[in-house]
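ok posting inputs for the 1,3-dihydroxyacetonephosphate job
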Amino acid sequence: MRTKIVAGNWKMNMLQHEAISLISDIKKELKNRGPNAKNTSMIIMPPFTWIPAAVEMTSAEPAISIGAQNCYHEPNGAFTGEVSPEMIQSTGAEYAILGHSERRQYFKESHELLKKKVNAVINAELYPVFCCGEPLEVREENKQETLIKQQLKESLFHLDEQDFSKVIIAYEPVWAIGTGKTASPEQAQSMHQFIRQLIHDNYNDKLAENTTILYGGSCKPDNARELFSKPDVDGGLIGGASLKAKDFIDIFFSF
Ligand code: 13P
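and the output
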């Protein structure tokens, strides 16, 4: 059985006091709602600066893990301003998002660079949350499957089976991110099924069945249930709605 996950990508939001009060509110909401009967796991991904506090504040919460939104691909050295996967791992955080479309678009992250980051994250014993997704013009030409296949092939499918089993994939159509335009449950299901088939073709049935594939892009409390009801959608990578404790917890309980 693959793990169901609801992950909150805070992006570049929250000052220190806001970060602390958001995590306190998430913990309170979680307590009010009681245990999650579907065994869903939660990952909170704050900016680097708030990771140690987030780890400390959630250390007694078995349902909550902490992750980073990015990292560099070297373990240490003269790379001013960068943060290594080893540093993230040493805080007690367990995950790192890689290949988010904002990193690909604004910071020109290439397939080749992402391949190095995937290797570095796995070497540091973190779990990569690898994002893929197509811009609007690619969807309009109906070439989304070709692009997703290339994104996965060039940065991920070099991994051996054991390392691939640590990967979580997030399908985030760029046209749905921050736009309020969610992919329909059918569009999400179709792409998730395609991704699972690619894993099957490159590895085997067992890995395909066990890989968690998240949907991201304007996922909100009012559409999460329908998206998560699709057989190949194993949860969500949530942007805007992860900044409000109640909305995030509503999504967390949407299975
Ligand atoms: P929104 O939920 O704000 O559309 O962002 C999605 C996203 O980019 C998560 O990584």
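notes: Strands lie at 5-9, 41-45, 64-68, 95-98, 127-132, 168-171, 213-216, 235-238. The CA atoms of residues 7 and 43 lie 4 Å apart.
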